[in-house]
Amino acid sequence: MRILNGMGFKWNRHFLLNWCLLTPLPIFWRIGVFVLLGVAIGLGAVIVRISRMPSYLSDAPEVCINCHVMNSAYATWRQGSHGPVALCVDCHLPHDNFVAKMAFKAYDGMKHSYVFTFRLEPQVLELSPAAVHVVQGNCVRCHYQQFQMIRLADSTERKCWDCHDGAHGAVISLSASPFAHRPQLPSAGLDWMKHLSKENSDE
């Protein structure tokens, strides 16, 4: 029985190894599959690098301006009353628990990536229905003491920003602050392209 088990384990191991190396396929198919796989992995690595994907695990406000359409939102937050006391995630992510926070961050981030990549963003950025609930809840959470004597504290008929300018000013638009200063982002590791472009222009 031990011999049979040993032989069975050996056969299974070789069977899996053969399939991983695509041995049953003709040699030209194997080369083609591995080339395409290498190209896919390479493109994936480039996308991760250029998009600064690991930075999205951070809560730093500068992460938001990885997308250039958020420059106005970043500038108005930075120069506004919320700049010194709150980060983007303090308002735009739920704080019920860590799982809810990361799940909403992933959901919202994927949606933003799709919209901004395909240039589907409107001139005036508006909160999604899910984000409205989150932001309103965070307004009440942070300003709870001020809400103690206000009738609208537990009301759903209005949102805080219906009366108050909020963190981004009265005009929320991609052109609200066209000359906004943004911090210098780290290099995406493609400086060689700049040098190549400069050499071509000099010629």
Question: Can you tell me about this structure?
Answer:
By secondary structure, this protein is mainly α. It folds into 2 domains: 2-49, no CATH class; 59-179, Di-heme elbow motif domain (Multiheme cytochrome fold, Orthogonal Bundle), CATH 1.10.3820.10. Helix content is 53%, strand content 0%. The radius of gyration is 26 Å and the shape is extended.
How much strand?
under 5%
**What overall geometry do the principal axes of the alpha carbons give?**
extended
CATH class of the largest domain: Mainly Alpha
Assign the structural class, choosing from mainly alpha, mainly beta, alpha/beta, alpha+beta, or little secondary structure: mainly alpha
Can you tell me the number of structural domains?
A: 2
Largest sheet: none
Low-confidence segments, given as residue ranges, are 1-10
Number of strands: 0
Annotation field: number of helices: 8
Task: Write the CATH homologous superfamily of the largest domain.
Answer: Di-heme elbow motif domain
